[in-house]
């Protein structure tokens, strides 16, 4: 080291570490600590929860797809998400016979409960790849926010992400919601970086977009937005390179070419995900495949594998069904356009909501943040608008991209130059962290303090917002510990098998009402949407206990 360098880098006390180096170490330690607590929360949740409704289907399809190179099961979702789940299942020697003839629900039950393996171990192996992916997406959120709002902004974004009850809840499950959202955030971040190095980051953005499309079809509405962002990135890249500002037509042509390249790469990823399962792409038309009429028929022109197009038609059929909705204690027939914003209001920590709102305003009001606003705010706005038109009001998991993108937007608050800003931001982040930690390990039924917390969520929301079948194992433990030998009547909403966990229960809906005596155990989603018979049984009972904020125990005289 030269004398000049020593004078610049070493503070007055000879031999002491430079302050900047210490700050970098503390900064790195904070990142590791945030991700470590998130990992601990997700792994604990994954270990303690029994199967949710969708997980056995994905697990069964993952096993069957790889073993028999078949796209027969779960055609409504592309294969990449299930291939990710399968990387964990590769550590279990689980098999399904080629002659298996059941539907996808029966397949999932067969793999988990009838294959001779421990279902808890299989489920944990299936969940671990999604947990790892969720943590990696946390690094994307951090990097994106740091590049737009500085290191302090990156920490704020990562804290909101790492303490998000919804991200923790769904990131610990072998499902597709967090992976598809994370791939979309990654694509937006790479497009943002393409403003400076388009040759490197545009192809990577195409890969991430393709991964989203190959995971879940709900990513489709984001395609035109991200392609327009590719055009915007090229425009900015040419401007930074010193192009003549009058060359608008040339920049637009280059932007259009970049968008086409991104689209082609994304399409190639989708094809690759299907070919990874079946090189022949043998088509197995799903039973009862609905016709694609009107504008939907145009989907047949998309340059995507035929099984993907079949899956789109299955999704159209699901959207055409009439679903019931439960919101704020009232059951509705059909969907509500405002359901997702209302559910997000209930299930987002209050500190997070405040930072989201302030960050969105800062993104358009603070000049240094404006260039990132289209990349951070427009994709979730378009995706949320699209999701709000859907017919299935089944949970905020359909909008899980919101806490990811808006965590990045919230980082912009640190760019507001006011003396009170650091204290206010720190207080709101701490408020979020405390609210999240208080719900541990019951993240799925979380609601914020304004709506009564996790114990009250079932009064306002249902399905995957609170009760997705995840507490069957906890129920078994509770019955053994507190109610041994009692007569149990069970109305369970989920994919688990009660008898496997030692629950000996009868169905109260098939017995005369006066014969239903003892313990009446009802999943809270079933309570929310109870028919007249179940409602009468509940009215004649006394609530005495609850399990996981998702199952209520009643005493029947």
Give the helices and strands, then pairings:
Layout: H1 3-9, H2 19-48, H3 55-68, H4 80-89, H5 104-113, H6 119-162, H7 165-171, H8 177-193, H9 198-213, H10 222-240, H11 248-277, H12 306-320, E1 324-327, E2 330-333, H13 339-347, H14 350-365, H15 373-388, H16 401-410, H17 421-439, H18 472-482, E3 488-491, E4 505-506, E5 518-523, H19 524-528, H20 532-539, E6 542-547, E7 551-556
Parallel strand pairs: 3-4, 3-5
Antiparallel strand pairs: 1-2, 5-7, 6-7
What features would you describe in this structure?
The strands form 2 sheets. This protein has a 5-stranded mixed beta sheet. A two-stranded antiparallel sheet has the order 1-2. α6 (119-162) crosses α8 and α8 runs antiparallel to α9 (198-213). It has 20 helices and 7 strands. Helix content is 56%, strand content 6%. The termini are far apart. It has 557 residues and is mainly alpha-helical. The radius of gyration is 25 Å and the shape is globular. The protein has helices spanning 3-9, 19-48, 55-68, 80-89, 104-113, 119-162, 165-171, 177-193, 198-213, 222-240, 248-277, 306-320, 339-347, 350-365, 373-388, 401-410, 421-439, 472-482, 524-528, 532-539; strands spanning 324-327, 330-333, 488-491, 505-506, 518-523, 542-547, 551-556. The model is unreliable at 1-15 (pLDDT under 50). 48% of the residues are buried.
Which characteristics define this entry?
disordered N terminus; 5-stranded mixed sheet
Helix content: 55-70%
Number of helices: 20
Measured between the Cα atoms of the first and last residue, the distance is 85 Å
SS class: mainly alpha
Mean pLDDT: 93
Form type: globular
- What is the radius of gyration? 25 Å
Strand order of the largest sheet: 4-3-5-7-6
């Amino acid at each position: 080291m030269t004398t000049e360098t020593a004078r610049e880098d070493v503070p007055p006390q000879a031999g002491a570490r430079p302050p900047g180096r210490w700050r970098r170490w503390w900064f790195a330690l904070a990142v590791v600590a945030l991700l470590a607590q998130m990992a601990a929360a997700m792994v604990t949740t994954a270990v303690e929860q029994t199967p949710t409704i969708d997980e056995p289907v994905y697990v069964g399809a993952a096993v069957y797809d790889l073993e028999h190179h078949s796209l027969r099961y779960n055609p409504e979702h592309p294969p990449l998400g299930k291939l990710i789940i399968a990387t964990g299942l590769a550590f279990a020697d689980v098999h399904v016979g080629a002659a298996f003839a059941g539907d996808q629900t029966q397949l999932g039950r067969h793999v988990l409960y009838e294959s001779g393996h421990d279902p808890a171990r299989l489920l944990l192996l299936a969940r671990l790849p999604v947990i790892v992916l969720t943590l990696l997406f946390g690094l994307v959120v951090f990097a994106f926010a740091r590049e737009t709002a500085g290191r302090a902004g990156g920490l704020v974004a990562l804290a909101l992400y790492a303490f998000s009850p919804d991200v923790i809840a769904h990131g610990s499950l072998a499902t597709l919601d967090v992976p598809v959202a994370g791939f979309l955030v990654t694509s937006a971040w790479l497009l943002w970086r393409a403003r400076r190095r388009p040759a490197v980051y545009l192809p990577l953005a195409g890969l991430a977009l393709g991964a989203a499309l190959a995971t879940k079809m709900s990513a489709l509405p984001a395609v035109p937005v991200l392609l327009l962002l590719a055009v915007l990135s090229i425009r900015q890249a040419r401007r930074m390179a010193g192009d003549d500002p009058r060359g608008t037509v040339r920049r637009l042509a280059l932007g259009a070419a970049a968008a086409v390249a991104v689209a082609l790469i994304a399409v190639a990823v989708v094809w690759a995900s299907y070919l990874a399962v079946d090189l022949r792409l043998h088509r197995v038309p799903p039973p009862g495949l609905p016709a694609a009429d009107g504008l939907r028929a145009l989907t047949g022109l998309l340059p995507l594998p035929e099984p993907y197009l079949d899956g789109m038609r299955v999704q159209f059929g699901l959207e055409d069904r009439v679903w019931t909705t439960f919101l704020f204690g009232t059951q509705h027939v059909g969907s509500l356009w405002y359901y997702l914003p209302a559910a997000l209001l209930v299930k987002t920590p209050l500190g997070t909501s405040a930072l989201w709102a302030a960050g969105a305003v800062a993104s358009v009001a603070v000049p240094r943040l404006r260039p990132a606003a289209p990349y951070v705010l427009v994709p979730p706005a378009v995706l949320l608008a699209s999701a709000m038109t859907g017919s299935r009001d089944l949970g905020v998991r359909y909008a899980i991209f919101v806490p990811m993108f808006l965590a990045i937007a919230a980082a912009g608050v640190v760019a507001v130059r006011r003396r009170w800003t650091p204290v206010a931001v720190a207080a709101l982040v701490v408020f979020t962290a405390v609210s999240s930690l208080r719900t541990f390990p019951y993240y799925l039924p979380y609601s914020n303090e304004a709506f009564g917390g996790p114990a009250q969520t079932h009064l306002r929301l249902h399905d995957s917002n609170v009760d997705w079948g995840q507490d069957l194992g906890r129920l078994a433990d509770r019955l053994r510990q507190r109610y041994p030998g009692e007569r149990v009547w069970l109305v369970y909403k989920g994919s688990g098998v009660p008898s496997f966990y030692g629950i000996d229960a009868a169905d109260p809906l098939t017995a005369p009402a006066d014969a239903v005596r003892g313990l009446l155990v009802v999943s809270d989603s079933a309570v929310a949407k109870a028919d007249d018979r179940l409602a009468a049984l509940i009215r004649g009972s006394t609530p005495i206990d609850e399990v996981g904020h998702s199952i209520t125990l009643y005493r029947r005289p």
